[in-house]
Structures are given as C-alpha cells and as structure tokens.
Structure prediction request, 241 residues.
Amino acid sequence: MNLHLLPIRTAGAAENMAVDFLLLQRYPQADVPRFRHYGWRGPAFTFGYSQKIAFVQSALPPGETFDLCRRATGGGIVDHRDDWTYALVIPRGHPLEDVRATQSYREVHECIAAALQRQGVPAVAKKTTEPTETAGPEGVCFQRAELYDVVHTGTGEKIAGAAQKRNKRGLLFQGSLWRPAVGTAAGGAAFDWDRFYEDFTALLGTLLGAEATAVPWPELNEDEVSGLTEQYSAPEWIEAR
Prediction:
C-alpha cells in the first residue's frame, strides 16, 4: 500500500476546505490513504462545523481583513496566518480509520511530535485533560491545548491540533501546526520545514503500513470543486449556526 503525497497548492479558505472534503468523497483511488500540505492565498481563519458564528466573530481579531470559512470537520477556530496546514484521508476499512477518534488523534499527533523531536524540538502529545498554564478560552485552537494535542514541553505552548470527520468514505483529518510555537531546531538553528514534511510523512507511512509516495494531482471534477467552493463561500454556510 502507498500513502499518496499530493502536490503542494495554495488557495483561499473556501477552496482549501472544499478540496479537503472532496479528497475524502471523490478521490479516484478510494482505498488509498492520501495526504496534502497546503498554503493560504492570504490571511485566513477556519472554524469547526458545530461552532456558533456569534462566538467565532467575537474571538476574531478586530479591524483586520481575512478569509473566513466553516470547516466540514469539528474543532475550534484556527488561525492560518502563520501555520503549517495539512489534510490526511484514511480510507474506510483501514485499521486506523476504525478506531475511536481519540486514538486516531493521538497516533497522528505522536507522529508530529516525533518529527519535531528529530530536529531537537521538545514536543509531546499532551496526555492529560488538565489545562496548561498558558491555556486560553475553549474553542480557540492555538490558545488552549486539549488531550493529545502536541505541546512544547519547554514553553507549554500548543504546537499542533486537528479536527476529524468520519463517514462512509473514511476519515478526514485536518491539522495545523503553529509555526511560532515550534521555535528553533537544536542548537538554535532555523527549523527546517521541508525536513519536517519528509519526516512527518515517513512516520505517517509507517503508522499506516504504507510507503509515502509523491503522486500527481488527482483528476477531480472541476465543476464540483468550484461548486463546493462557492457553497463554502456563501453566508448560508458560514453563518449556518
């Protein structure tokens, strides 16, 4: 089995969220795990499917312009202005897709922590439900570390969090690392994000029993991509709750 590593793309918030969902729903090789790291066309925030728009608006920075989109996954508000974002789809029937959400969350985040540790960053998956000293309000991703989020043991800051959606097609895992919380590599050297990508995907491949392999972009239906992007851009979706 291979873990498909898709090309890196940059898009707006609604398109990024639409593509992630379609990689779950419409991937041509539905039985293959797939992964993508992607960028943002400009400042952006996303928030969880069940979150209330009034709370989201109250927590956003005032007086700034940015993309805003409701995700199909759960979780809290995520600031994408200086993060490292990825999506992982685990197909239906894979052993990791079949476990409880807390276990799949823990195992993927342990891969992140291990990849960070390879460059000397003291990162671990948080093993308790107790809030850290730096905890902020609930529902805002990088201000509060929850169980099995990745935290920096030196500063207590949250480094990585994620949200999941499971349906008959499999499991969509949308995750993010806050770059400032990572800090530097061992000896004060600049953290190498290209190396992190290689280490993280290799560890994911081992976890999934698959070989991480770069592949071309899949042939998704462009009308479906643009249609879902339009839906995710609409006030009816963003302000649904």
Summary: Residues 101-117 form the longest helix (17 residues). The radius of gyration is 17 Å. The chain has seven helices and twelve strands. Helices lie at 13-25, 53-59, 101-117, 179-182, 193-208, 222-233, 235-238.
